[in-house]
Each structure stands twice: as C-alpha cells, then as structure tokens.
Specification:
Alpha-Beta Plaits, rod-shaped
C-alpha cells in the first residue's frame, strides 16, 4: 500500500513538473518569436522598401556613352542599392511575355524606351527624398522621364510606422501575459505543497530555509523550459531562413545571441520571482486558510 502511495505521489510530482516546464517553454517560445519580430521589424521594413523600383526612361537620342555614364553614376550614388540597364528590346520581350502576345506585330514598331531601373537603399525610400532624387536625375538632357509610384511609397511608409507601433504594444502586453502565465503555473505547483510548507514552518524552519528548495527546483524547471523554447525557436529560425533567405536572419549573430540569452535569463528570473512570492503567500497564511 505504501509503495502504491509513493508511486502515486511520484507520478503527481512528475506531472506537476512537466506542466510547469511545458507552460514555461511555450510562453518563452512565443515571447522569443515576438522578440525576433521586434528586433527584425526594421530589417523586414527595409526589405520591402528596397523592392521599390524607380524607372529612368531615356530619350531615343541618348548616346551609349551617356547611358553608360548615367548607370555608373547611379551605381556609385549613396542612395542606390542596384541599377540595371534595360534596353527597349528587352523591355518589349518582357512585356510580350506578360501580356501573352507580341504587341510589336500589332503596332508595327516598339514604343518602349531604354531605361535604367534603380532599387534604392531603404533609408532613402520616402516621398520627399524620392522627389529630390527624381528632380536631380531628370535634369540630365538625355533623360525623358523618371517614373515611380509615389502613393505606394507614402502608403508603405505609413504602414511600416503603424505596424512598428503595434508590434511594440503587443510585445509589452505579451510580456505581461507571459509573466502571469508562468506565475500561475508555478503557484499551482506550490499550492499542492502548501501543507508541507506550513508543517515545516510549524516545526521551526525559517522562511528562507523553506523557500530555498522550492526556488532552486523551479529555477531548474525554468532553465529547462527556456532550453526547450530556444531549441524550438532555433528550428523555426532555420526553417524561415531556408524559405526566405533574403531576410538574412543569421546575419547579425550578436543580436541573435542577445535574444537567446534574454529568453533564457527571463525564464530564470520569472521562475525565481514567482516562486518567491508564491511560497511567501502560503507562509503568511493561517493554518485554517490552507483549506480554502
């Protein structure tokens, strides 16, 4: 009979520890994902901004040497990420593929212009800076037109600011929720041992002596939960990096190490603080209140 009770108590203890570790791991994993979003918000925004293309259309009278000089000057400009020359023949071929028919046969000539497609660096993608760049390029005598989608750029910048703000708000809210969830799991785990706590207190054990093993145990559980969360986060990062290599998630190693270290330390700190206050609560209860 005593062996059965002992096995039952051991199963309950393992089940309690498992639920604490699992809850800590899940919460820290989600918190790690949110941390990655916060840290990479600018990188994601920059990625989308750098997809914006400015097309510099050239006059038919533009000489090859002028076109070559223009492309070289654009490549060397501080605002340029890439500058690609597109001949009117290449443009016609691409347009014919897009519409599914040869429009030159219908029109009898190629109405398209030679052009240079520019992708800007993210820091220069704003309506005001683009207007300044377009004015500068348009001043050249052999440039016919500088074309870009100004409303789209303004909308993109507004949405980036709005999304960044909401991500910060969500991060703060979720951090609070994470603390509360981990705290609840640890409190439930300690609640089942409230009579042991009170018995130790009644035989003369100090509060520090009683708290010490509970804090040590839950810190270990917090570390284990944090390790599981970091393993899951690493797997997710490799998956995202494989499917979206342009994001370069592993480019900033210091940033990643800081995030992982932050998640690990957070698991330890929350476990320590939650255990301290949970045990303190039961230490301060009267014996009669333990039954409620």
């Amino acid at each position: 009979m005593s062996q059965y009770i002992e096995r039952y108590q051991r199963r309950r203890l393992i089940s309690s520890y498992f639920s604490v570790v699992l809850s800590i791991a899940l919460v820290l994993f989600l918190l790690g994902i949110l941390g990655m979003l916060v840290l990479n918000t600018k990188k994601l925004a920059d990625h989308f901004k750098e997809q914006i293309t400015i097309s510099v259309f050239l006059k038919d009278s533009a000489k090859p040497v002028e076109i070559d000089q223009l492309q070289k000057s654009l490549v060397m400009a501080e605002y340029t990420k890439s500058a690609t020359y597109v001949s009117k023949e290449d443009a016609a071929e691409q347009y014919s593929e897009d519409i599914g028919e040869n429009f030159e046969e219908f029109l009898g000539y190629n109405p398209l212009k030679n052009s240079v497609d520019i992708n800007l660096r993210a820091d220069f993608v704003s309506p005001q800076q683009l207007d300044s760049i377009a004015t500068e390029i348009s001043a050249k005598s052999y440039v016919e037109e500088v074309s870009y989608d100004r409303p789209l750029i303004a909308l993109l910048n507004d949405n980036v600011k709005r999304i960044s703000l909401w991500i910060l708000i969500a991060s703060a809210a979720f951090t609070l929720i994470a603390v509360l969830l981990i705290n609840s799991s640890i409190r439930l785990s300690i609640y089942s041992k409230r009579f042991i706590i009170k018995t130790m207190q009644m035989v003369g054990a100090t509060k520090t002596f009683i708290r010490k093993p509970f804090i040590a145990t839950n810190i270990k559980l917090g570390m284990l939960g944090a390790l599981l969360a970091l393993i899951a986060l690493t797997v997710l990062l490799f998956y995202v990096d494989k499917n979206f290599p342009e994001l370069n998630l592993f480019q900033d190693v210091v940033l990643l190490v800081s995030l992982f270290l932050g998640v690990f330390i957070l698991g330890i700190v929350i476990s320590w603080v939650s255990t301290h206050f949970a045990t303190q609560r039961f230490l301060n209860l009267r014996t009669d209140d333990l039954y409620y």
